[in-house]
Design a protein that fits this description.
Layout (H helix, E strand, L loop, with lengths): L2 E7 L13 H4 L6 H13 L11 E4 L6 H11 L8 E7 L7 H16 L5 E6 L6 E7 L13 H17 L15 H8 L5 H14 L4 H10 L3 E3 L8 E3 L7 E2 L9 H9 L5 H9 L11 H6 L3 H13 L14 H4 L5 H13 L5 H30 L4 H55 L1
Antiparallel strand pairs: 1-3, 2-4, 3-5, 4-5, 6-7, 7-8
Length: about 450
């Protein structure tokens, strides 16, 4: 079962090649940015430790040792050195389905059929993960006619179907196209990882309401208590519920066979009379009156953006005060559980540098950019010194300082990215917490 993908390597250096981290091993000050990108993506594809000492690295229409140079010669020959540098694709196989040699042979067959007549290609088989996979680096300009490779839905569909056909010829399984409407992959992966989505949270709310009801009116009441807007008209073909904080409703039948209109009423009418006792017990549960100093009290003593982020992390259960359960969270916060680590990092940054206002963020960002500029200039000076004829001891000392500067620049850039994210998200977090506070005040008034 092979999975395929292809994307372009163009102007942005960090985004498409962000797995190339070590600047000291990859950057060459003599190269332009385009040449550097090309070198990085080819080096990644053929990286030792992933390809068994480059044994499973092959090329088509170019020399393995000088692939980058030959890619650039083709571009210069047709005066097409700008724009997209290359295309990077992959083909991944199911765990244990192929040997490294078979995977590489299939990759070469695919590359030859798709691009071998017009383009230069590097094919590398990576062995460093459980699922063996091929990487393809394709020159964006054809050596034959100078025309650019056009990546679109049709070319990707051709790549996928060709890969499937070759896999079948080699006796491998393929992913059959599912019938009907496809499942949103983001929601599917979240549910597979047992993370909260508005759909599995809605199922949970429905299950709780059904378990405490003996008729449709009681069921609707229990759903309203949980913040849901319900349209349960018997004359309508489907019942619809709208989660709190959402404008778009959900047809209950889309949540599974147990949540159709008919099945819900079967489950409700099949309950024992004892459910009313349980509902009364939950309604009149007495709150505890312990007057102890809590962590939330310390958080509320802070101010500004720092207080906002600490409170948000507290509500997500990620300070941590205890291991939070998704069922204990407010509906508005449940889908932010996936981002809780990011929020925690941002809260730590705010506390570390005592950042409370937007002005503090601007000041911190400006200071960080100046530090990066100063360190980068110093690093360039050291790189020039290293190239000169100097004693080996002095050379090693310069290299060590370069490593320290690179590490510091990387850390500052990370902090600046967090600050940028804080500026974008703080207003959203504030609105979410206002919703939570209103719901809590409403619950207190109804007791």
């Amino acid at each position: 079962m092979a999975v395929t993908k292809i994307w372009d390597i163009s102007r942005s250096f960090d985004a498409p090649i962000k797995y190339v981290e070590n600047e000291e091993k990859t950057l060459n000050p003599k190269w332009s940015e385009k040449e550097q990108m090309l070198e990085d993506v080819i080096e990644y594809a053929a990286k030792e430790g992933k390809t068994e000492n480059k044994f499973f690295v092959s090329t088509i229409n170019c020399n393995k040792s000088f692939a980058r140079e030959e890619f650039l010669i083709t571009k210069k020959r047709f005066a097409k050195e700008g724009g997209i540098v290359a295309f990077h694709g992959y083909q991944s196989f199911e765990e244990g389905e192929v040997t490294p040699a078979e995977a590489h042979a299939i990759g070469m067959e695919l590359a030859n059929e798709l691009w071998g007549d017009r383009f230069q290609v590097v094919v590398a088989t990576h062995l460093n993960t459980k699922c063996l996979h091929n990487h393809f680096v394709i020159n964006s300009v054809s050596f034959k006619d100078g025309k650019r490779y056009h990546d679109c839905r049709d070319t990707y569909a051709l790549m996928r179907t060709t890969s499937d056909r070759i896999c079948v010829e080699h006796g491998l399984s393929i992913i059959n196209k599912p019938k009907g409407k496809g499942v949103n992959q983001y929601l599917y992966k979240m549910e597979q990882a047992n993370m909260p989505t508005r759909y599995n949270v809605a199922r949970q709310a429905l299950d709780e309401a059904i378990a405490l009801s003996l008729n449709k009116e009681e069921f609707a009441y229990e759903m309203r208590k949980r913040g849901y807007i319900c349209k349960l008209n018997d004359n309508h073909k489907y019942w619809t519920i709208t989660p709190p904080g959402w404008k778009q409703g959900i047809r209950t039948k889309n949540l599974g066979p147990e949540y159709t209109k008919e099945r819900i009423m079967e489950r409700v009418c099949g309950n024992d009379l004892s459910v009313r006792t349980e509902r009364i017990r939950q309604t009149y549960r007495m709150p505890n009156n312990y007057n102890l100093k809590r962590r939330i009290d310390k958080i509320m003593g802070r101010s500004g953006i720092e207080k906002l982020y600490l409170r948000y992390c507290y509500e997500l259960g990620y300070l941590p005060k205890y291991m939070q359960k998704a069922t204990m969270l407010h509906q508005v916060l449940k889908e932010d559980l996936l981002k809780c680590e990011r929020y925690s990092e941002e809260a730590k940054l705010l506390s570390k540098y005592h950042i409370s206002t937007d002005g503090d963020i601007l000041s911190f960002t400006s200071e960080g950019e100046k530090k990066i500029e100063t360190m980068s200039e110093r690093r360039e000076e050291l790189r020039k010194i290293v190239k000169r004829k100097i004693p080996e001891g002095a050379r090693e000392k310069c290299k060590d300082e370069i490593k320290v500067l690179t590490s510091s620049i990387k850390e500052i850039r990370k902090e600046l990215r967090l600050c940028e994210d804080i500026s974008m998200r703080s207003e959203i977090l504030e609105k979410n917490l206002m919703k939570v506070d209103k719901e809590q005040e409403k619950e207190v008034r109804n007791r």
